[in-house]
């Protein structure tokens, strides 16, 4: 599975990593719904850190269709709220 972190690039992940990311996505979604700025920041950083840890960075000159798009590290709670409008960043 190919994912993109906005403003950074693409990562290739094993499909088995999606379950881990999905739990972190759920935590992020709860923080956004509660308008919890501290929880939002820590949840977003945890999600991105896990994606980077389990993913393999694709070369910058390689462009593949991304199955998932994650917000950039400095995204605001309102920007992520807009991205979550479709039921979460990670389906499932």
Keywords:
alpha+beta; 47% helix; single chain; 4-stranded mixed beta sheet
Portion of residues in beta strands equals 5-15%
* Helix fraction bin: 40-55%
List the secondary-structure elements in sequence, H or E: EEHHEEH
In round numbers, the mean pLDDT is: 90
- The chain-level structural class is alpha+beta
Number of H/I helices: 3
Radius of gyration: 12 Å
Task: Record the strand order, biggest sheet.
Answer: 3-2-1-4
The total of beta strands comes to: 4
Shape descriptor: globular
Distance between the termini: 14 Å
Largest sheet: 4 strands, mixed
Counted up, domains total 1
Spans of at least 5 consecutive residues with low confidence: none
Descriptive overview:
Helices cover 47% and strands 14% of the residues. It has 92 residues and is of the alpha+beta class. The chain has one domain (2-84). The protein has a four-stranded mixed beta sheet with strand order 3-2-1-4, covered by helices on one side. Helix 1 runs antiparallel to helix 2 (37-54). It is globular. The mean pLDDT is 90.
Summarize the topology.
Layout: E1 2-5, E2 9-12, H1 17-33, H2 37-54, E3 56-57, E4 68-70, H3 77-84
Parallel strand pairs: 1-4
Antiparallel strand pairs: 1-2, 2-3
Helix pairs in contact: 1-2
Brief summary of the model shown:
The chain is α+β, with helices and mostly antiparallel strands and 92 residues long. It has helices at residues 17-33, 37-54, 77-84, and strands at residues 2-5, 9-12, 56-57, 68-70.
